[in-house]
Structure formats: structure tokens, C-alpha cells
Amino acid sequence: MTKEQISELESNLDQYTGTENYYRISGLHPDIVCTDGVLYLAQMAKAFWLLDAILSYQKQCSKDEMLSQMQFWKLSVDLEKSSAVLTCDRDSGDTAITQEIEYTDFPLAEIKIWVAGKVLMLPGEY
Predict the structure, then answer these.
(1) pLDDT band at 92; cut points 50, 70, 90
(2) What does pTM read for this prediction?
(3) CB 35 within 8 A of CB 94
(4) How many other C-beta atoms are found inside a 10 Å radius of the C-beta of residue 107?
């Protein structure tokens, strides 16, 4: 993505403050949906892999009393090395899951996705 496209993506993501629709994102997890903002992110940043990564931990999260209700996911990208770390927190500073990602072309330095119950959303959509 060009710098202009990245800037537009960031600006557009900031404007999601709720959702009008919910979208099924995986046949393997038909009960989990995402919001307009998360779908936009996945489409524009070509990041359906990120949603798949989050979904791959849902069985594990369902066994944790706190994570079964609310999860705070963050992808932190080292743009120079094209690598990243995906984390899931129960609460601020209480990290439950960490996954190193050796290579990514994700265009943003950081993105947060929250999972409330069975809905993936941007923080502004909560």
C-alpha cells in the first residue's frame, strides 16, 4: 500500500463507531461474526489471515472465564522487519496469548480487535 492508502485506511478505521451489519467470517466458526469495521480492515489490508489467527484461538479462549466474555487482541507490527506479534489480553497488562509472526505485509504498525462474546469488532465499535 502507498502512504496515501495507509493514511486513508487509518482515517477510515477511526470513523467506525458501531455497526449496521454482522458478517460470518468462517465456516469453521459459524457462530462468530465480525462488524463492518473489521470486515473493512480485512478487505482493505488483505488481512483475513489476522481474523483466522484470532479465530484459531477461540476454543482455547472459551476455557478461560475472562476470555470467554471479552478479549483484547493487538497486532504490533515491526514495519522495518515485516514481522509482528499478536497478543490477546484478558485485561490491561494480563496477556493470555502471544504469537510471533515471522513475516507480514500488514500495512499498519498496530491494530486492535476486540472480541465481545462472539463478535469481532474495532474498539470504536464497542
Answers:
(1) confident
(2) 0.94
(3) no
(4) 19
